[in-house]
Amino acid sequence: MDFDREIYLDHAAATPLDARVREAMEPFLTEQFFNPSAPYAPAWETRHAFEGARADLAHAIGAKPAEIILTAGATESVNLAFSVLFGKLGSEDISQKWEIGVGGYFPKNGKLGSEDIFPQEDISPTTRNVHEVAHVVTTAIEHSAVLACAQAHPHTLVPVNHHGLVDPEAVRAAIQSQTVLISIGLANNEIGTVQPLRAISEVVQSVRQQRLMEGNTTPLYLHSDASQCAGQLDVNVSTLGVDMLTLNAAKIYGPKQVGLLWTARGVQLEPLVLGGGQERGLRSGTENVAGALGFARALQIAVDGRKDEAARLLALRKTLQHQLLEAFPEAVVSGHKKRCLPGLLHISFSGLDAERLVYLLENEGVYVATGAACAANKATRSHVLEAIGLPPEVADGSLRLTLGRLSTEENTARAAEIIIRVVRSEYERVSS
Amino acid sequence: MDFDREIYLDHAAATPLDARVREAMEPFLTEQFFNPSAPYAPAWETRHAFEGARADLAHAIGAKPAEIILTAGATESVNLAFSVLFGKLGSEDISQKWEIGVGGYFPKNGKLGSEDIFPQEDISPTTRNVHEVAHVVTTAIEHSAVLACAQAHPHTLVPVNHHGLVDPEAVRAAIQSQTVLISIGLANNEIGTVQPLRAISEVVQSVRQQRLMEGNTTPLYLHSDASQCAGQLDVNVSTLGVDMLTLNAAKIYGPKQVGLLWTARGVQLEPLVLGGGQERGLRSGTENVAGALGFARALQIAVDGRKDEAARLLALRKTLQHQLLEAFPEAVVSGHKKRCLPGLLHISFSGLDAERLVYLLENEGVYVATGAACAANKATRSHVLEAIGLPPEVADGSLRLTLGRLSTEENTARAAEIIIRVVRSEYERVSS
Questions:
Q1: Of A285, A315, B167, B327, which is most buried with the most CB atoms under 10 A?
Q2: pLDDT tens track for B283-307
Q3: What's the DSSP call for residue A396?
Q4: Of A101, A170, A278, the CB nearest to B376
Q5: Which 3 state secondary structure label does DSSP give B174?
């Protein structure tokens, strides 16, 4: 992409790698290529750098290093959060039949490498049997990763109002006696509405209190996917009041397929990927050291620069919105006026075809989205717009414009002009 | 690491990024950073490049692009292969326990907490319930990823002989009527023994025939982790005769945490990670485009240069082995003489402490391993050496020396001198 000529308005889908992030990754792409589990000193240094990245990531969100699990992206992080719903065999069972050996659990008295027919009917502690009754509460406007995970379990989708806002009392009402997990994204990736997580966390607290009194020992966790947020919103875990938080490097000018799951102490996860036991046994596989270093640098930059960048993006977005609404007073802006991602503008041109708009804008070098890119090209109507009650003829003419570090006053103004010209000619075409 | 002064003899643990691989990744770390699922033309180009990488990966192993699933590393690929063992709840089961309510499946007679539930189509308790009787056959010397996965199911570990070789007839004997998966690494990552996969695949064929005649409809798949092999052995899937193959970029001078699973047509996998539906729904999450391009280039280079590089490494390894055995005739070389990874030398100095040797060699700038690095620093005795019957006092003095592209005649000869000097002084120390 020619960063001078072309205008990128899809920062919510992907962000370019920051030069400083690149620099942080560099040594681990070249001379420090060692396997961090290797036994010689240069590999220990690689391990040390990797653990330093973990500490930096933790620090950036007000957490402890041991609470961070590095994953291959946000989707995997969300899936790992949902592992609280997987059941284990009881620990008595395990200790009677199994013991820890090289690479995992082995049957007691079993001998490796001999005539080892292991007990046939025994299933090790790591199976993925699902709690039969564990229930999930989430919202109707979540990212496809959360929705797909929720749909694998009994679940309730809490509705949102027409601004896309979740009512904490609706969350309370959806919680059942067997609810184990509540997963609510901090900011919606399509319309940018920021949820009242703190208030929801207070609901969670009060339900826990109530369970305690009733003798219900079912754990209850609040998870949030904040992938869209670092760099624009506060992602400090204690401010948010969550038990688990998902973050993503790729959305904050870091490398792709690098993410993390933060969990408060005491949250019981089950691994999705078994093997060498890396990441406390929760994400086996040789570590992506360069990725972790890049992520740490990206998060640090995002958090440090958040206030200024959020204010800058908000100003750009307001101007853009103002210009577009002035040209098309009938256009519909979705999302919440105040509780919003600063850099996101969701605007609908009723009666137009958003896909045509994307194509026409692309011809002019302006790259915009019709919605979330993450659902792998599914040509279906947005579940988010349905959930906020946008009529189909409005929804079908929707653009998601997301500003970011590539946005300037100059290119945003230029984008506004081009969008106005293209939308105007489309309205002329359809009305003629 | 100073590539001129220091000598890296741990290519089986990690490999440096090849400059040509780096170059292939470059555009996708900079200007082509787009989300491949985004709707504008530059993102389509990114998608096109990504699918081109998949085609190149497929081509390199004699497969079709649609048969390749890109994963975040070999461990994840192995775990995905084991998903053939996951069952879904049968539809009868579901209807007995669950009913479709507003918002999804709910336990029968269960009560919802909220009236405002959104209808959601396409909801099913998919889930990772494990087939209760599905059985796995693997060997006693597999990588920890395979062992950990096998241990989550009823399984049989086929023993190996003292060269680390698996007898195809022992595999046949271990197969039960409910065996669904046989997973055997092409080459062992510790002693380098190359398994007779082709012969094992013939056993699998004949068992399938037999099942057909008996009316046993249980599927039977042969999976192989060939992560250590591309670049040294033939990894063409039809030559190998396998149904599933795991490969890893990080072991062939490509990026870390990038891998693939190849599956023959008809193999039924279940996703480990749910979400946007990328990789045919089997590995959701925004694609690691740069990683895939790097992997494709790395595999192409490895396959194209295999014959010459394998011959070169074999010659280097033979010379190294000869020099070490000449200095220490009592040293024990493990693995199979002919069926071996060309660049791997596993040698044991009975009575010495391998960890001290690693430390002393590291002081001289020579980096070697005591065994596989992948098991995340577990200071336990190798299960591979136990399985081949190496006595503890021999096993404890074992070094794994793995040659690769950083190895030259000059630095390998220098390494031999240093190892001989260090081992000699250690023998003097312990005998005095």
A1: A285
A2: 999 999 999 999 999 999 999 999 9
A3: T
A4: A278
A5: helix
